[in-house]
Amino acid sequence: MSVAWQFYISTVLIYLGVDVIACWGLNLQFGVAGLVNFAFIVFQAAGAYTAAVLTLGPATPVRLGGFQQYVGGAHWPFPLPVLAAGLVGGVLAALVGSFAIRRLRSDYEAMVMLVVSLIATSVATNQVGLVNGPNGLAVIPKPLATMVDLSPIDYQWLFVGVTAVICVCVYWLVHIVTSSPLGRTLRAVRDNEAAAAALGKNVTGLRMLAFVLGGVIAGISGAVLVEFISAWSPGSWLYPETFIYFTAVIVGGRGNNLGVMVGALLVPVAFLEATKFLPQFGPAGLTAALQWIVVGTLALLFLWFWPRGVIPERRRRFPAAASTPARRSLIRARSGP
Amino acid sequence: MNTLVPAIGFGIVTASILAVAGVGFTLQFGVTNILNLAFGDIMTAAAFVAYLVTNAGASVWVAMVAGAAFGAVFSVALNRFLYTPFVRRGTRLFGMIIVAIAVSLIVQNGLLAIFGANFFSLRMPRPTSVHVAGMVLTTVQLAIIGIAVATMIVIHLLLRYTKLGKAMRATATDPELARNCGIATDRVIDLAWTISGALCGLAGVILVMNVTAFTDTTGSGFLIPIIAVAVLGGIGQPYGAMLGALVIGLASELAAAVFSPDYKNVVAFVILVIVLLARPQGILSEIATRKEVAA
Question: Which residues pair with residue B138 across a beta bridge?
Fold first, then answer.
């Protein structure tokens, strides 16, 4: 395999890893807990900015020739910025959730989230001192690059490995949540909020938990992405990007971690990468516009024909309480003479 | 003080545009419970229709009518051929939001694909400046205020003195009961989309009359204040939306004058959050609680 192809494939794999992580996070919120988080990309962005700033080191003032201004720069060794990004994603989610997750009807919730997303872009763009405004952050050092002495292509594969390890960790986290009684409760809240509340479940608390966990995962995905591409600006996280993740989750099968992984492979990766091989035609920007039209149409088609996705969520059946032998004998004993 | 008085003038102009758009948004949302997030993009599309009409040599008044007509036809078609079929197929609230966002992206990028990433402006007679009570407004801006006031009066008369207003309120409260009472709810819903679409188109045209240049994203950028207006006024309350438009229009222009023009939308957002925190029942108004989409 030529070096160019190796570069391409490793890059696509890293993007896939980032998208899979992000889709798991969104699936936890949207697929499992039924939260319509249209600000998802904001949490990814927050994680990316955190990781970037914590890797870049303190900002050089403009008078000393610094070309980017931001707050809280530090030189943290590799895994720490990623963990901090997850933390910031979670804290931000708790903050946004404190006013957005309040038993609102899901369309109001979506409306508020959409507004959060637009406002976050506006603040990050206009508060230049915060994260360098519209120009964003650049030349973010690559993790471990100074410690390991590798050729660029070997470094690419190292990064693929690192991304894979993070993917496995995140999968482990989402799997624990979705396969545990907690996941069952979350699905119950999603499917019938009133019934779950009647059984004494803290509906708002549970939704908040799923929201914060999703925020943590979104933050981590942003950190991995920014450590790889070394640059981040408001243009990288406009609100339609969230829609791509939503489409991926719907196409893959909401509520199903495996399905969502397939969705991440199909929509952001296969679909948007494949178009790079098409010849450019028409004026600049036409291809991008058509891409969005196709993604929108794809979402509509799936919602119409396969609303449960390529790999639908498994229907879980639990034996009725009275049908298990132990219980039955208990009931018999109680209702005895 | 010197900057505040002109800001009030601009605030009234913004409020006028917001009132037209906000009343349209809230009427449709209140009756059908479909959060039409493509509203801003339909505004842009109507603006492009107006652009084509003025380029063909017609006056801006004709363009306004054309924009409103386009908005009405497009909205009714959108509901008939896309939203309603999805609702009948069992798509729930959050599914409908995805559908609406998909429409929004398709419309916006469709305009981008057709017209290209350029700046456009309506061909209009050069406006002259008028001094009103210390505020300097252009004749175009005065016309916008006049159009908004006239539109609000028409809407008021329509809702107050025709059976349609009553039928709309009935449909909004309980579509099934309304149908059983002999109200042709399908027709009421169609009419709600028609009025909402016409107001949407009109708002799109007057919005781009007020700016020097517009692009494919002009309308969608206006969506936050529209949502804030609808929420502040209480979903489905046209009079609330009128008041909300005045509050948000003035507040955002004053904030632009005092802080920075970049924070116009932030004011709308802050108001939205305060309403949510302080009066969540304001957003969950009586007609909107625990209700699925109507079709």
Answer: B129
Question: CB contact, 8 Å: A246 with chain B?
Answer: yes
pLDDT in tens, B234-262: 777 888 888 889 988 988 888 888 877 77
Q: Which amino acid is at A84?
A: A
Mutate to test the interface with B, among A40, A42, A101, A111 (most CBs of B within 10 A): A111
Q: What whole-number distance in Å separates Cα of residue A152 and Cα of residue A150? A: 6
Measure the CA–CA gap between A5 and A229, rounded to whole angstroms. 18
What are the residue ranges spanned by the domains of chain A? 3-334
What DSSP assignment string belongs to A48-96? HHHHHHHHH-SPPPGGGT----BSS-----THHHHHHHHHHHHHHHHHH
Over residues A284-321, the pLDDT tens digits come to: 677 778 888 888 999 999 999 988 888 888 777 776 65
**CA distances (Å), origin B24, targets A70, B20, B185, B219, B266:** 42, 6, 18, 14, 22
Domain over A3-334 is classified CATH 1.10.3470: yes
Q: Is B179 exposed, middle or buried (0-12, 13-18, 19+ CB in 10 A)?
A: middle
Q: What is the CATH number of the domain that holds B123?
A: 1.10.3470
Closest Cβ opposite residue A303 in set B35, B86, B110: B86
Question: A192, A317, A296: which is closest to A250 by C-alpha?
Answer: A296
Instruction: Map residue B287 onto helix, strand or coil.
Output: coil
ipTM score above 0.85: no
Q: Does residue B136 belong to any structural domain of this protein? A: yes
Domain tally, chain B: 1
Residue B172 has phi, psi (to 5 degrees) of -65, -40
Residue type at A39 in one-letter notation: A
| A-proximal residues of B, 136-195, CB under 8 Å | none
Rounded mean pLDDT of B221-241? 84
Identify all chain A residues contacting B82, using CB atoms and an 8 Å cutoff: 300
pTM of this prediction exceeds 0.90: no
Query: Do residues B182 and B188 make contact, with C-beta atoms less than 8 angstroms apart?
Result: no
- pLDDT over 60 at B295, yes or no: no
Q: In the numeric block, which tokens belong to residue A35?
A: 């939260």
Cβ atoms of residues A272 and A79 within 8 Å: no
Q: Tally the residues of chain A.
A: 337
Which residue range(s) make up the domain with B176? Answer: 4-283
**Using CB atoms within 10 A of its CB, is residue A319 exposed (0-12), middle (13-18) or buried (19+)?**
exposed
